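Holo model, heme C. Inputs:
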Amino acid sequence: MKKTIWAPVCISAAILFAACGGGEEKKTEEKSEETPVVVDDSMVAPTAGKGKELIAAQDCKTCHQEDAKLIGPSYNEIAAKYENNDENIATLAGKVIKGGAGNWGEIPMAPHPAIPEEDAKEMVKYILSVGK
Ligand code: HEC
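Output:
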């Protein structure tokens, strides 16, 4: 009997929690390690996972992985090299769009002129949160 009482309480607590968390960017960044554990957030628009989803929809994974160097550096390496701040996010988003070379080796990164700047920033935010 007790279980039937608790279920709706838990669900509304989960919704409340997600709704509150969305407004505080710092907290969602700190929590990023735990996010895979989150049970069912299908009713709430995801904020922390947006960059990851955008990346998954692009060709990035051909050259980048989270923790292994492929053609380009791993997201872990990129996150270790650059501090997660607005300036770096803007610079790196620019490189995603226009392409870049010479920071990690001889191989240049292909430009992605079709990606809107806002999306590129979301992707970089995600990359810089990897491993932190
Ligand atoms: C054709 C392979 C390739 C693809 C596709 C690719 N990258 Fe890269 N990326 C690279 C290489 C190579 C570098 C290192 C460039 C350098 O040395 O400056 C790099 C560097 C980067 C950097 C760091 C730039 C710097 O100046 O330190 C970021 C951030 C990045 N890539 C994000 C992305 C994202 C996001 C995507 C998908 C939209 C993507 N890359 C797609 C090859 C690729």
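The chain has two domains: 1-40, 49-132. Residues 55 and 61 are 8 Å apart (CA to CA).
Archived with the compound record.
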